[in-house]
Design brief:
Number of helices: 19
Largest sheet: 7 strands, mixed
Helix content: 25-40%
Amino acid sequence: MSRDVSKIMKRVRSRDTQPELLFRKTLWKAGVRYRVCDKDIPGKPDVTLLARKLAIFIDGEFWHGSQWMRRKLDSLEEQFKRGKSKEYWLRKIRMNMQRDCHSTATLLSQGWTVLRFWDSQIRKNLDGCIGLTLDVIHGRVESSPFSLVPQKTCSEFFAGIGLMRIALERHGWKISSANDIDPKKYQMYAGQFKGSEEIFNLVDIHKLSAGQIPSCTLATASFPCNDLSLAGKRKGLKGKSSSAFWGFLRLLRDMGGRRPPLVLVENVMGFITSNNGTDLKDALVGLNELGYSVDIFMVDAAWFVPQSRRRLFIIAQIEGPQCEGNPTATTKIGESQFRTKKIMDFINSHGQIRWRLRELPKADAAPVNLEQLLEDLQEEASEWWDSARTQYLLNQVIPRQREMLDSIIAGDDWTYRTAFRRTRKEGSVAEIRSDGIAGCLRTPRGGSARQILVKAGKGKFFARLLTPRECARLMGVDDYCAKVSASRAFMGFGDAVCVPVIEWIALHRLNPLVTELIRGRPLSLAEVDRPHVEKKSMSYKK
């Protein structure tokens, strides 16, 4: 940060700002007595009513991460795109956002009621802010359903090997419970996270009860895609595997007043067309019926890592008092990187669904190339196939790709490509990608072939399977502790979410939403139903 900017920032008031003084003066005239900036209270609230255990904060949009929304920009990054101190401000403001959540959650856990206002709310609607404060003081308003939001806790359903957890924890979220049915995946999960047995329910989601799920901010569901995938039998949400979504929805329903304010669902793009769109419509209507408004968008892992992996995401937000905006308005949202024509056609043709769509910033991360992720295996390494197996693969390459491959083999440099064996009318063939990235990692179940790495150039041709470490890197987790067999590792990574994708969603969709939802409404845990959490259903033993 430059010296001139530093001098300017030192003159910015950290207390007694004009909105604060205006709010305090008006509150005092209303007969309310209070303390100011009490250092003994977590977060040092701008106004404190000890007798009522009410803490009030008046936050500046710039410092607390909302100015970009007020200016109708796409992201916090866009707010600082022209500055020389971009990384400094991004880090500082996001630390403030995290600190706001922490201090608010701490106060709530100690029995306080918390009100946070933006200074622009005070300037634009002082009477409304004072009125809400007086209603809280006199017990004339119920606590918001978003009172669980500042905790940033998550129940992770269909947890698999824990890649959703890794991504969310990198952005300030805490996993309070996890669930999966597969003991082999749990073995990988437990190897990655110490103390997993304390929070993990290893049981079919249809047998899981709401009492086993602690109150939390967010519920995530990367439910099985077998019956939705274009490569499957397309039985949809009535299929044996993908019907697990209804088990997830049942749990949300049974949680009642403890229902998570936010939900994140992930699945394959085939979800949109499954049963001509009826499955996705039914899933979204099901969330609507539980009080959620919904948003859908697509993210491709290829924007972050060299792997083609397009996935559909649903973000559901529970509706409640003081929710701003029209949840069904979609007219301002058009086709984009995240909402293709197919997605927008679905949205526009389903006006009965209660939507709450948001613009998303362009994902312009520069991914590393495939070669950078590969393990450095010498030509003599046992992982490389022998000449007979390699030649068999070469003979399987479809004719229209063989010419491209021969050109690469004759090149002066090494070139790396990935390939899959597929069953066509003419039999088993090898299809090689020409774009220099890996295909979508898949589980080796149901006849799905494992991905093959091809190394060609200098008149030579080599082939081998991708290693577990390379699969981990393609999913954005180079340091994952996969102390299992290669086949188990392939199964785990093939069924998982791509970590950089979830990180991007946390950074640009979930965390800004949290920042918004903890303001302009009373937060209190006094009325949140928190029953005893039943004992976990664990059956896996090491």
